[in-house]
Amino acid sequence: MVKQITENPHGQFTTEDYTVFVVMLTVSAAIGIYFGFFEGKKNKTTEEYLLGGRRMKVFPIAVSLIASQLSGVSIMSVPAEMYSYGAQYWIIAPTMIVIVMIINYIFVPVFYNNQITNCYQYLEDRFSPAVKKFVTFTYVLNIYLILPIFIFIPSLAFAQVTGTNIHLINGIVCCVCIFYTMLGGIKAVVWTDVVQGVIMFASCFLVVAVGVVKIGGFGEVFTRAAAGDRLNIFDMTFDATTRQTFWTSSIGNVFLWTGYLGLNQSCVQRMVAVPSVRHARTALWIFCAGFIIITSLNCFTGIVIFAKYFDCDPIKVNLVQKADKLLPFYVQDVVGNLKGMPGVFISCVFSAGLSTMSANLNSLAGIIYEDNIRPFKLFKHADASANLTMKMLILFSGLYCIVMGLVVEQFGHILQMVVTIASVTQGAVMGIFCLGMLWPWANKHGALWGSAASVIGMSWIIAGAQFAIKNGDLSYPPKPTSVEGCAEYGFNVTQSVLGQSTAVTDDSSGGFSIYKMSFVWYSTVGTFLVFLVGIPVSYLTGSQDLSKMHAKLISPVVHRWLPKEITKSELVLKTSGVNPEDVQIKEWVFTPAEEEKRKKLRDTNEHVM
C-alpha cells in the first residue's frame, strides 16, 4: 500500500487531472452562457426561466433528477457508510420503486390537475395561506441549512488529493455554479445536470472496475467483505435504536425519500416542466432505474474499498482522518498512477455537488420571489424585473454557501448530519401533503397545528439526540476493522491500535430512549406526528365540509370515498378524445375563470370551521 501511495503522493494532482477538472467546469459555464445569451430571447419570461416553457424533454429531466438527487454527499458518504457499517443501506435502491409509485399515483396527478408550479401553492388552495407560509418557511430554512454541505463535500475530496486550500476551491466552484444558474435558468440547470450525470456514471464505473481487477476479481471482493461482516442486508432486528436495519433502510427511507423527491420544490419544478402527466411519470421511472444503478454502484464502491483495506484500515494508521475521506484516498491509491483518473473522480464528485446546488438555487430563488418579495409590491412586476430579482437571490444564496463552508468543515459524519438536518422539517412536509391529499376531512387548523407539532417535536427529539452524542450517551460504533496486515506495508502498528479496531461500545444498557432512536426514523416519526395532531384538531374545530371540497385537491386514489356528486361535478383537466394523462398545462398564470375558482376555494377554506 505504501508503494502505491508514493507513486502519486499527496499534492501531486497531474496536469492531465487538472485538465479534466477544468474541462468539466468550462463545459458547465459554457452551457450557462449558451442559454443566457444565445438562447436569451427564449429565456426572458418567468415561465421560461423557471420551467423551460413546459417543453422540456423527458430524458434530460430524468437525468437531471438523478444527478441532483445523488449529491456529492452520496458519492462521498455512501461508500463510507458501506465501509463503516456494512451494506444494509443498499436496501434504499430497490425501495425506490415503491417511492416512485407513491409519487406517480398520489402526488403527480394532483399537481397537474391543479396546474401547480410551486408545490407549496397546493397548501394554500387546500388549506389556507397561513399553512403555505409556514411550510414554505420551513423549506427555505432547511435548504439554507443543508445546501452548504452539498457543495463543500466535493471541495473536501479535492483538498484530499491535491492539498489545495479547501475554502479556496469551494469558493471557485460555487462561483461557477452561481454563474451558469443565474444566466441560463432551469434549462442550463437541466443540461449541465445531463453532462454531469454522464461524468458521474462513467467515473464511478471506472473506479470500481479498476479496484475489482487489482483486488483479484469479484469473488475475492465478496469473500473479504463477507469475512468482515459487510454483506448483511437483511438485518431484521426490530430495534428502533439500531442505526441501520432492513426496516430503517426500507420503511424509514420511504418516508424520507418520498418527501425529498416528490414534495421538494426543486424536484416538482422539473416534474411540471414536461408537457403532461404521462411525460412526468415516464421521467420518474427513468429516474428510478438510474437511481438504482448509480446507488448500487456507489454502495459497491464502499464494499470494494473495504476489500482493498480489509487487513489494514487507513483510518487506524492515520492515513485518513475520517471515513468520509476514504473514497478520495482510495482513488489516489488505486488509480492515481493512471493519468487523468483522479481528475475524472474529482469531476464526478463536483458534478454531483454542482447538480444539487444549481437545482436548489434555481427553485429557492423562485420560491422566495413569489412568496416573500412579489406580494409586497416593492416594484412593478414584470418578467424582466422578476428574472433580475431571482438572479440576485441566486447570487446571495451562492455567496452564503461559500461563507458557511467554514462551519461545515467542523461537522462529523456527513451522511448522518444531512439526514438529521433534513428530518427536522421533512416529516412535517411529508405529513401535511399526505394529510391534505389523503384525508379529505382535514381542515386548515388541523394542518397548521399538525405541521407545527411535527417541527417542534422533531426539533426536541433531534436536539436531545445531539446532546446525547455530545455527552457520549449515544454513539454508532462502526463494524470492526483490522490492522493485522499493516506491518508488511511498513507501518509499526502496536497492539493497542489493533485493539481499538475491534472495540464496540454498547449504549443500549440504559433501556429505550427516544433520543437513541436511529436518525433514519426521524422523517417517519415527523410524518405521523402531523396525522396524530392534525386529524383530532380537524374534528374538534369542525371537519372540512366535503360538499364544498374540490375533488381535484384530493389524490385520485381516495376519490372513491368522496361524495359522488362532488367527483361528478368536479372540473378536471380533460380534453375530448384525449387521454387525461396527455393533457398539457399551457399557462404559467391561471386563466381568469380558473383564478375565480381558486378564489372561491380559498374563501371556502377560510370560512369552514
Name the average pLDDT.
Answer: 79
Count of extended strands: 0
Helix content: 55-70%
Distance between the termini: 71 Å
Number of separate helices: 22
Order of helices and strands: HHHHHHHHHHHHHHHHHHHHHH
Structural class: mainly alpha
Could you list the spans in which at least 5 consecutive residues all have pLDDT below 50?
1-11, 495-509, 571-578, 583-594, 605-609
Indicate the proportion of strand residues: under 5%
The rounded Rg comes to: 25 Å
Question: Which descriptor suits the 3D outline?
Answer: globular
Give the biggest beta sheet. Answer: none
Helix/strand layout:
Layout lengths: L1 H6 L7 H24 L7 H6 L6 H12 L2 H14 L6 H22 L7 H6 L2 H34 L3 H50 L2 H10 L18 H17 L2 H7 L5 H32 L17 H9 L6 H33 L9 H26 L5 H25 L5 H27 L24 H7 L20 H19 L23 H6 L22 H16 L2
Helix pairs in contact: 2-9, 2-15, 4-9, 4-13, 4-15, 5-13, 5-15, 6-11, 6-13, 8-9, 8-14, 8-15, 8-16, 8-17, 8-18, 9-13, 9-15, 9-16, 10-13, 11-17, 11-20, 12-15, 15-16, 17-18, 17-20, 18-20
